[in-house]
Input
Amino acid sequence: MTDRDTWWTPWREAGDSLILHVDLRPDPGCEERALALLDDDEQARWNRFTVEGAGRRFALCRAALRINLCDRLGCSNRELSFGYLEHGKPFAKINGVPSSASFNVSHSGRHGLIGFTKQEGLGVDLELRAPGRDFDGIGSSVYGPRERRALSAAAGSDKEHLFYRFWSLKEALIKALGTGFSLSPTRFEVPQPMIEGEPSALFRFPHLPANLFWLEDLGESRFAAARAYRLNTEDAGLTDTP
Ligand SMILES: CC(C)(COP(=O)(O)OP(=O)(O)OC[C@H]1O[C@@H](n2cnc3c(N)ncnc32)[C@H](O)[C@@H]1OP(=O)(O)O)[C@@H](O)C(=O)NCCC(=O)NCCS
Output
Protein backbone atom coordinates (compact mmCIF):
# COMPACT_ATOMS: atom_id res chain seq x y z
CA MET A 1 0.00 0.00 0.00
CA THR A 2 2.92 2.37 -0.30
CA ASP A 3 3.03 3.07 -4.02
CA ARG A 4 -0.35 4.71 -4.47
CA ASP A 5 -0.38 7.99 -6.36
CA THR A 6 -3.17 9.41 -4.24
CA TRP A 7 -4.93 8.47 -1.02
CA TRP A 8 -8.20 10.14 -1.99
CA THR A 9 -10.86 9.33 -4.60
CA PRO A 10 -14.00 11.14 -5.83
CA TRP A 11 -16.92 9.90 -3.72
CA ARG A 12 -19.91 12.12 -4.61
CA GLU A 13 -19.98 14.45 -7.58
CA ALA A 14 -22.85 16.60 -8.86
CA GLY A 15 -22.66 19.85 -10.82
CA ASP A 16 -20.28 22.23 -9.06
CA SER A 17 -19.91 20.16 -5.96
CA LEU A 18 -17.54 17.34 -5.21
CA ILE A 19 -16.83 15.26 -2.15
CA LEU A 20 -13.60 13.27 -1.94
CA HIS A 21 -13.20 10.20 0.21
CA VAL A 22 -9.81 10.13 1.93
CA ASP A 23 -8.31 6.77 2.86
CA LEU A 24 -6.84 7.26 6.34
CA ARG A 25 -5.47 3.78 6.87
CA PRO A 26 -1.85 3.74 8.04
CA ASP A 27 0.46 4.10 5.02
CA PRO A 28 3.97 5.37 5.80
CA GLY A 29 4.68 6.25 2.14
CA CYS A 30 1.59 8.47 1.82
CA GLU A 31 2.13 9.96 5.28
CA GLU A 32 5.67 10.99 4.40
CA ARG A 33 4.52 12.63 1.16
CA ALA A 34 1.65 14.33 3.00
CA LEU A 35 3.86 15.73 5.75
CA ALA A 36 6.24 17.25 3.22
CA LEU A 37 3.37 19.36 1.86
CA LEU A 38 2.39 20.92 5.20
CA ASP A 39 3.66 24.37 6.14
CA ASP A 40 5.50 25.15 9.39
CA ASP A 41 2.32 25.87 11.38
CA GLU A 42 0.68 22.65 10.19
CA GLN A 43 3.80 20.60 10.93
CA ALA A 44 3.93 22.12 14.42
CA ARG A 45 0.28 21.16 14.90
CA TRP A 46 0.99 17.64 13.60
CA ASN A 47 3.77 17.36 16.22
CA ARG A 48 1.38 18.24 19.04
CA PHE A 49 -1.10 15.39 18.40
CA THR A 50 -0.93 12.76 21.11
CA VAL A 51 -4.02 10.63 20.37
CA GLU A 52 -3.15 7.54 18.31
CA GLY A 53 -3.87 8.17 14.62
CA ALA A 54 -4.91 11.82 15.06
CA GLY A 55 -1.71 13.18 13.46
CA ARG A 56 -2.06 10.80 10.54
CA ARG A 57 -5.70 11.79 9.96
CA PHE A 58 -4.82 15.48 10.07
CA ALA A 59 -1.78 15.21 7.77
CA LEU A 60 -3.43 12.99 5.16
CA CYS A 61 -6.59 15.13 5.02
CA ARG A 62 -4.76 18.47 5.06
CA ALA A 63 -2.32 17.42 2.32
CA ALA A 64 -5.19 16.07 0.17
CA LEU A 65 -7.02 19.35 0.76
CA ARG A 66 -3.91 21.31 -0.25
CA ILE A 67 -3.34 19.36 -3.48
CA ASN A 68 -6.98 19.63 -4.55
CA LEU A 69 -7.31 23.30 -3.61
CA CYS A 70 -4.14 24.17 -5.55
CA ASP A 71 -5.62 22.40 -8.54
CA ARG A 72 -8.95 24.23 -8.27
CA LEU A 73 -7.45 27.65 -7.47
CA GLY A 74 -4.50 27.47 -9.86
CA CYS A 75 -1.86 28.19 -7.23
CA SER A 76 1.21 26.39 -5.92
CA ASN A 77 1.39 24.62 -2.57
CA ARG A 78 3.80 27.31 -1.29
CA GLU A 79 1.34 30.08 -2.17
CA LEU A 80 -1.50 28.38 -0.27
CA SER A 81 -2.05 28.87 3.47
CA PHE A 82 -5.03 28.71 5.83
CA GLY A 83 -6.69 31.20 8.12
CA TYR A 84 -9.27 30.32 10.79
CA LEU A 85 -12.62 31.90 11.65
CA GLU A 86 -13.73 32.55 15.22
CA HIS A 87 -14.67 28.93 16.01
CA GLY A 88 -11.84 27.32 14.05
CA LYS A 89 -13.36 26.90 10.56
CA PRO A 90 -10.46 27.05 8.09
CA PHE A 91 -10.45 29.19 4.96
CA ALA A 92 -7.88 29.27 2.15
CA LYS A 93 -5.48 32.14 1.40
CA ILE A 94 -3.36 32.59 -1.70
CA ASN A 95 -0.22 34.63 -1.01
CA GLY A 96 -1.92 35.78 2.20
CA VAL A 97 -5.12 36.96 0.46
CA PRO A 98 -8.36 35.17 1.47
CA SER A 99 -9.87 33.19 -1.40
CA SER A 100 -13.57 32.47 -1.87
CA ALA A 101 -12.99 28.70 -2.12
CA SER A 102 -15.67 26.84 -0.20
CA PHE A 103 -14.60 23.56 1.35
CA ASN A 104 -14.98 21.53 4.50
CA VAL A 105 -13.28 18.48 5.99
CA SER A 106 -14.32 15.66 8.30
CA HIS A 107 -12.40 12.64 9.54
CA SER A 108 -13.15 9.69 11.76
CA GLY A 109 -11.20 6.45 12.15
CA ARG A 110 -9.97 5.35 8.73
CA HIS A 111 -12.23 7.58 6.69
CA GLY A 112 -12.12 11.25 5.75
CA LEU A 113 -14.30 13.42 3.54
CA ILE A 114 -13.37 16.69 1.85
CA GLY A 115 -16.21 18.66 0.29
CA PHE A 116 -15.94 21.46 -2.25
CA THR A 117 -18.76 23.56 -3.60
CA LYS A 118 -19.39 26.95 -5.19
CA GLN A 119 -21.78 28.01 -2.43
CA GLU A 120 -20.25 29.59 0.66
CA GLY A 121 -21.02 28.03 4.01
CA LEU A 122 -20.33 24.35 3.42
CA GLY A 123 -20.30 21.73 6.16
CA VAL A 124 -19.56 18.02 5.81
CA ASP A 125 -19.56 15.42 8.53
CA LEU A 126 -18.63 11.76 8.79
CA GLU A 127 -19.34 9.59 11.82
CA LEU A 128 -18.28 6.00 12.37
CA ARG A 129 -21.12 4.07 13.97
CA ALA A 130 -20.28 2.46 17.31
CA PRO A 131 -22.79 -0.19 18.37
CA GLY A 132 -24.14 -0.84 21.85
CA ARG A 133 -24.18 2.66 23.29
CA ASP A 134 -27.00 4.15 25.34
CA PHE A 135 -28.42 5.98 22.31
CA ASP A 136 -31.63 7.12 24.07
CA GLY A 137 -29.62 8.38 27.05
CA ILE A 138 -27.10 10.33 24.96
CA GLY A 139 -29.86 11.50 22.62
CA SER A 140 -31.77 13.01 25.55
CA SER A 141 -28.98 15.56 26.09
CA VAL A 142 -28.22 16.43 22.45
CA TYR A 143 -31.47 15.99 20.52
CA GLY A 144 -34.72 17.91 20.44
CA PRO A 145 -38.18 16.47 21.23
CA ARG A 146 -39.09 15.30 17.69
CA GLU A 147 -35.66 13.70 17.22
CA ARG A 148 -35.87 11.98 20.63
CA ARG A 149 -39.34 10.63 19.83
CA ALA A 150 -38.13 9.13 16.54
CA LEU A 151 -35.09 7.67 18.27
CA SER A 152 -37.05 6.06 21.09
CA ALA A 153 -39.49 4.52 18.58
CA ALA A 154 -36.61 2.75 16.76
CA ALA A 155 -34.97 -0.47 17.95
CA GLY A 156 -31.73 -2.40 17.51
CA SER A 157 -29.55 -1.42 14.54
CA ASP A 158 -32.27 0.99 13.32
CA LYS A 159 -31.80 2.99 16.53
CA GLU A 160 -28.02 3.01 16.08
CA HIS A 161 -28.34 4.15 12.44
CA LEU A 162 -30.86 6.86 13.34
CA PHE A 163 -28.69 8.16 16.18
CA TYR A 164 -25.67 8.61 13.89
CA ARG A 165 -27.80 9.89 11.01
CA PHE A 166 -29.19 12.69 13.20
CA TRP A 167 -25.73 13.36 14.62
CA SER A 168 -24.05 13.75 11.22
CA LEU A 169 -26.90 15.90 9.86
CA LYS A 170 -26.71 18.24 12.85
CA GLU A 171 -22.93 18.43 12.83
CA ALA A 172 -22.89 19.18 9.07
CA LEU A 173 -25.24 22.10 9.83
CA ILE A 174 -23.15 23.60 12.64
CA LYS A 175 -20.05 23.18 10.48
CA ALA A 176 -21.78 24.91 7.55
CA LEU A 177 -22.62 27.75 9.92
CA GLY A 178 -19.06 27.69 11.29
CA THR A 179 -20.02 27.69 14.98
CA GLY A 180 -19.29 24.03 15.66
CA PHE A 181 -20.61 22.93 19.03
CA SER A 182 -20.43 26.46 20.43
CA LEU A 183 -24.03 26.31 19.16
CA SER A 184 -25.80 23.65 21.23
CA PRO A 185 -27.29 20.90 19.04
CA THR A 186 -30.43 21.06 21.21
CA ARG A 187 -31.24 24.50 19.73
CA PHE A 188 -32.42 23.11 16.40
CA GLU A 189 -33.83 19.90 14.97
CA VAL A 190 -33.40 17.94 11.77
CA PRO A 191 -36.23 18.96 9.37
CA GLN A 192 -39.38 16.84 9.83
CA PRO A 193 -39.26 15.25 6.34
CA MET A 194 -35.73 13.98 7.11
CA ILE A 195 -36.80 12.71 10.54
CA GLU A 196 -39.34 10.67 8.55
CA GLY A 197 -36.62 9.34 6.23
CA GLU A 198 -36.34 11.80 3.32
CA PRO A 199 -32.71 11.98 2.11
CA SER A 200 -32.59 15.79 1.81
CA ALA A 201 -34.50 18.95 2.74
CA LEU A 202 -34.30 22.71 3.15
CA PHE A 203 -33.37 23.92 6.62
CA ARG A 204 -33.32 27.13 8.69
CA PHE A 205 -31.88 27.56 12.18
CA PRO A 206 -34.72 28.90 14.40
CA HIS A 207 -32.49 31.79 15.58
CA LEU A 208 -31.34 32.67 12.01
CA PRO A 209 -34.50 32.57 9.89
CA ALA A 210 -32.96 34.60 7.04
CA ASN A 211 -30.39 31.88 6.27
CA LEU A 212 -31.57 28.97 4.16
CA PHE A 213 -29.53 25.76 3.97
CA TRP A 214 -29.68 22.62 1.87
CA LEU A 215 -29.16 19.49 3.95
CA GLU A 216 -28.38 16.01 2.62
CA ASP A 217 -27.94 12.60 4.21
CA LEU A 218 -24.94 10.88 2.56
CA GLY A 219 -24.66 7.91 4.90
CA GLU A 220 -23.58 4.52 3.59
CA SER A 221 -22.75 1.10 5.03
CA ARG A 222 -19.29 2.15 6.34
CA PHE A 223 -20.31 5.39 8.07
CA ALA A 224 -22.97 8.05 8.60
CA ALA A 225 -22.30 11.23 6.64
CA ALA A 226 -24.01 14.48 5.70
CA ARG A 227 -23.50 17.69 3.78
CA ALA A 228 -25.09 21.09 4.35
CA TYR A 229 -24.59 24.36 2.52
CA ARG A 230 -26.06 27.81 2.57
CA LEU A 231 -28.36 28.73 -0.31
CA ASN A 232 -28.62 32.16 -1.82
CA THR A 233 -32.42 32.51 -1.66
CA GLU A 234 -32.59 35.35 -4.18
CA ASP A 235 -30.57 33.48 -6.82
CA ALA A 236 -32.46 30.26 -6.19
CA GLY A 237 -35.85 32.01 -6.24
CA LEU A 238 -36.82 30.12 -3.10
CA THR A 239 -39.70 31.35 -1.01
CA ASP A 240 -40.34 28.58 1.52
CA THR A 241 -41.08 29.36 5.14
CA PRO A 242 -39.32 27.64 8.04
C1 LIG B 1 -16.12 21.93 14.31
C2 LIG B 1 -16.22 20.71 15.21
C3 LIG B 1 -17.69 20.33 15.36
C4 LIG B 1 -15.46 19.56 14.52
O1 LIG B 1 -15.43 18.45 15.33
P1 LIG B 1 -14.52 17.17 14.98
O2 LIG B 1 -14.92 16.10 15.89
O3 LIG B 1 -13.11 17.56 14.90
O4 LIG B 1 -15.13 16.78 13.60
P2 LIG B 1 -14.72 16.61 12.10
O5 LIG B 1 -13.68 15.58 11.90
O6 LIG B 1 -16.02 16.42 11.42
O7 LIG B 1 -14.16 18.03 11.59
C5 LIG B 1 -12.83 18.44 11.72
C6 LIG B 1 -12.55 19.46 10.64
O8 LIG B 1 -13.54 20.47 10.61
C7 LIG B 1 -12.93 21.72 10.23
N1 LIG B 1 -13.36 22.69 11.25
C8 LIG B 1 -12.75 23.04 12.42
N2 LIG B 1 -13.52 23.95 13.08
C9 LIG B 1 -14.62 24.16 12.32
C10 LIG B 1 -15.78 24.97 12.47
N3 LIG B 1 -15.96 25.77 13.54
N4 LIG B 1 -16.73 24.93 11.52
C11 LIG B 1 -16.58 24.14 10.42
N5 LIG B 1 -15.50 23.34 10.22
C12 LIG B 1 -14.53 23.34 11.17
C13 LIG B 1 -11.44 21.51 10.18
O9 LIG B 1 -11.06 21.39 8.82
C14 LIG B 1 -11.26 20.20 10.89
O10 LIG B 1 -10.25 19.39 10.33
P3 LIG B 1 -8.70 19.67 10.57
O11 LIG B 1 -8.54 19.98 12.01
O12 LIG B 1 -8.05 18.41 10.14
O13 LIG B 1 -8.39 20.82 9.68
C15 LIG B 1 -15.60 20.96 16.62
O14 LIG B 1 -14.21 21.08 16.50
C16 LIG B 1 -16.16 22.23 17.26
O15 LIG B 1 -17.27 22.21 17.78
N6 LIG B 1 -15.42 23.34 17.21
C17 LIG B 1 -15.84 24.61 17.75
C18 LIG B 1 -15.46 24.63 19.19
C19 LIG B 1 -15.89 25.85 19.94
O16 LIG B 1 -15.95 26.95 19.42
N7 LIG B 1 -16.18 25.62 21.19
C20 LIG B 1 -16.60 26.69 22.07
C21 LIG B 1 -16.97 26.17 23.38
S1 LIG B 1 -18.15 24.86 23.24
